Amino acid sequence: MNWKLAAGISLAVVMSVGGTTSAIAADPIKIGAFLSVTGQMSPMGDPQKRTFDYMIDKINAQGGVLGRKVEMIVYDDGSEPEKATTFVKRLIENDKVDLIIGGSGTPTSMAVLSLIERSEIPYMSLGGGTGIGDPVRKWTFKFPQSDRLAAEKVMTDLKKRGLTKIALLSENVGFGKSGHDQTLKLAPNYGIEVLVDEVYSPKDPDVTPQLTKIRGTTGVQALFIFGTGTGPAVATKNIKQMGMTLPIYQSHGVASKEFLKLVGTAADGTRLPAGAQAVAEQLPASDPQKKVVMDFKKEYEERNKPLEVSPLAGHGLDALMMAIDAFKRAGTTDKAKVRDTIEATKGFVATTGIFTYSPTDHMGLGLDAFHIVEIKNGDWVLAD
User: Fold this and answer.
1) Average pLDDT over residues 134-154
2) Backbone angles phi, psi at 252, to 5 degrees
3) Which runs of consecutive H residues, i.e. helices, occur in the chain?
4) Per-residue pLDDT reduced to its tens digit, 38-64
5) CA distance 120 to 100
6) How far is it, in rounded angstroms, from Cα 311 to Cα 277?
7) Disulfide engineering: 258 pairs with which of 43, 54, 116, 156, CB 3.0-4.6 Å?
């Protein structure tokens, strides 16, 4: 594995089998990636890069794809949309990649959509915002469960528990902003009323003013926090410090062990929608995702000791494995044929869910891609 500085802007990683430059055959298949390895979205980007680090070597050790070595070029966008755009342009124009994976979060993913579509290159987004996949864009496919699905899953559980009057605390950009809008749009369909609607900035060190307003509002039965990165951890700690006892819900934007480490036992009792990876051992043997998530957990944790796997790492794995599958099924790296092959994917069992794309659906998942989990003693427990 060779490391090189990317023109003084960031770090790029060029991955090849066994740390050598010997080709399996002909020219390599090039996959480009831009990830938030550092910055506010690093809880997503870092595990995704770790996954790519060993998976590319593994794929090449098994013979590559179509008899060719797979080379991956990874740029760290530092969680900044402007850098994401710069690196995607570089991947397309300078590195001449065959396919792009990335945008660890919604802001970086959204920033590159028009460039991707103009360039006509298959793109697999790792951002959670609904706006990435709706409306459908010809060359863009989305992997994490959407914020819309998360809002639907949470409201289904709220309704089941008879909690119909809620407060909403959301991040004012990206994933949180999109999740906020989806929640307000969908709430009436579930008979849920949002009594308080508060926002925070991802860089806010404290959200007690917003929580004080929520606590002082009569009739609030539960609090739904929509965000990712460090913001939800700040809110969780503030809730504990203030002694608030409302039922708390979060989104899948915090479904990582890093979040649990940041908040300790302060999040106990919190419920959220999470993918199968979060509760791999608790799934029944009959679950079609059981083997996939257990195999990934074993391999990831063996290679990244003492780190634990997270659903966020799984998003990267899913995108990479579907890309490899698409190259194989298409029998070529021709961009249009690979795009068409991805769009025709049906019943692809992955860590995030079971994907079925179509010309009218480039998100590919339903509510069954989520489980409701509750945090108990600093860990996830199935609650549905």
Assistant:
1) 95
2) -70, 0
3) 42-61, 81-93, 106-111, 113-119, 147-160, 174-186, 208-215, 231-242, 257-263, 290-303, 311-330, 335-343
4) 998 888 899 999 999 999 999 999 999
5) 11
6) 5
7) 43
pLDDT at 334 over 90: yes
Residue at token pair 């579509």? 117
Residue in the block written with tokens 């397309």 = 92
Average pLDDT of the residues in 298-310 = 93
Q: pTM for the complete prediction?
A: 0.83
Say how many residues make up the chain: 384
Cα–Cα distance measured from residue 357 to residue 138, given in angstroms and rounded to the nearest whole number: 12
Peptide bond into 43 cis (omega under 30): no
The type of residue at 221 is Q
Give the residue-averaged pLDDT of 320-327: 98
How do 371-376 and 2-6 pair as beta strands?
unpaired
CA distances from 326 to 58, 64, 123, 333, 361 (A): 18, 14, 12, 9, 17
Which residue is listed with tokens 């790519």?
A: 52
- 228-276: pLDDT as tens digits: 878 899 999 999 999 999 999 999 888 888 888 889 889 999 999 999 9
d(CA 126, CA 36): 11
Degrees (nearest 5) of the Cα angle 43, 377, 375?
A: 60
